[in-house]
Amino acid sequence: MKISIITPTHNRSEYIDMMLQSVISQKFIGQTIESLVVDNGSKDRTKDVVESYYGKHPAINLRYVYEKNLGCNYARNTGIDESTGDWLIFFDDDVILHEGCIQAYIDAFAKYPDMLCFGGRIKLKQPDFTLPDWLVTTGEYMRSMIVLSLDYGNGNALYDLSGQTPMTVNMAVRRTAFERYGYFSTYFGLSGKKLMPGADYELFSRFSASISKWVYVGGAAVWHPLKKSQATKKYFRQRMFGVGRVTYRLQKFEAKFTIFGLPLYFFTFIAKNLWLWLKFSMLRKPVEKFYYHTEMLTYFGCVYEHFYKKLVAGEVESYKKRDTAS
Fold it and tell me: Is the pLDDT of residue 152 over 90?
């Protein structure tokens, strides 16, 4: 069983330092694992930090790889090409691996040899700052795509890939899945300061046409932080607007009645969320107020994407062949 870990990073040397410390602290049996950190155009000390961990774990072959084309999916695709494993584990650069994380993946690969997609448990690392009054990290008003959480308990279980999917923060994919169904699309995913999400959403939306199930691996747990720079209304607005754009790109919205080609129910949803925003504004409930404000922005993102003139088939289908831009 050949396993590679792939971690894209961009100007986060302080986070990659903590992440690699948790990697070399892992204990696992009977394996030599390759770990690639793909530097996506960083200007900080990332290369020095990665190289400082060379040789610190006898069973982990750590490698530094550079990808100059900016975008997390460019970096992930480079990691796929540069790696040698049959099983590819993806960790974000800001996670802390729980004790036994890698061993849990190894056990799951052995237990489910015919499965192609796996997802680990993602737990929120409690913020070391005071949250604003509109932001919550639990409950129905939590934004799980920003305050990242995927927690179905400690065990393993199978889930439909057409529903809740693994997250690129902590997941594993067999190489044959990429060979059969394509790489990450470079038209989606965060890129520098551009907050266009959808890296994992697009991938598994495409995979689900051929793959029905994925394996949740409860023992493969990581801690993921909510950063102070993310706990701003501007950040949340931009992300939710981007979620709307990605949703409109990937889903088919059919309707009997339309306005300028847009389903009439879009405007119904916007009006409904506008009313709820006004209602909770008057009730002075900041959590609910901001939640419905960003719900509106999601639909505005859909509307914007509908009229977005630069969308062309060649860009959207960028996963079909490996990008070779120089």
Answer: yes
Count H helices and E strands in the chain, helices first.
10, 11
Split at pLDDT 50, 70, 90, the class of 314 is very low
User: Regarding beta strands 96-97 and 213-225, do their DSSP bridges make them parallel or antiparallel, or are they unpaired?
Assistant: antiparallel
β-pair partners for 121:
221
Where helices occur in the chain by DSSP H, the ranges are 13-24, 46-51, 72-82, 101-111, 175-181, 199-207, 233-250, 264-282, 286-306, 313-316
Spatial contact of 97 and 197, defined as CB atoms under 8 Å apart: no
d(CA 202, CA 234): 24
Q: What are phi and psi of 147, to 5 degrees?
A: -85, 80
pLDDT tens digits, one per residue of 280-304: 999 999 999 999 999 999 999 999 8
Return the biggest CA–CA distance within the chain.
63
Backbone angles phi, psi at 137, to 5 degrees: -115, 5
Please report, rounded to a whole number, the percentage of residues in the chain having pLDDT higher than 90.
73
Q: How far apart are CA 205 and CA 196, in angstroms?
A: 17
- pLDDT category at 279 given cuts 50, 70, 90 is very high
Mean pLDDT of 172-182: 96
- Indicate whether this model's pTM tops 0.85: yes
What does the alpha-carbon distance between residue 64 and residue 279 come to, in Å, rounded to a whole number? 52
Q: Where are the domains of the chain?
A: 3-227, 233-306
- For tokens 């965060």, name the residue: 190
Query: What span, in angstroms and rounded, lies between the C-alpha atoms of 42 and 137?
Result: 30
Which whole number is the average pLDDT over 243-252?
85
Six-digit token pair at 234?
């501007």
User: What CA–CA distances, in Å, run from 126 to 5, 66, 162, 220?
Assistant: 25, 32, 30, 19
* AA identity, residue 290: F
CA nearest neighbour of 244 among 122, 140, 145, 134? 145
CATH superfamily of 3-227: Spore Coat Polysaccharide Biosynthesis Protein SpsA; Chain A (3.90.550.10)
Backbone angles phi, psi at 126, to 5 degrees: -60, 130
Neighbouring-strand partners of residue 3? 33, 87
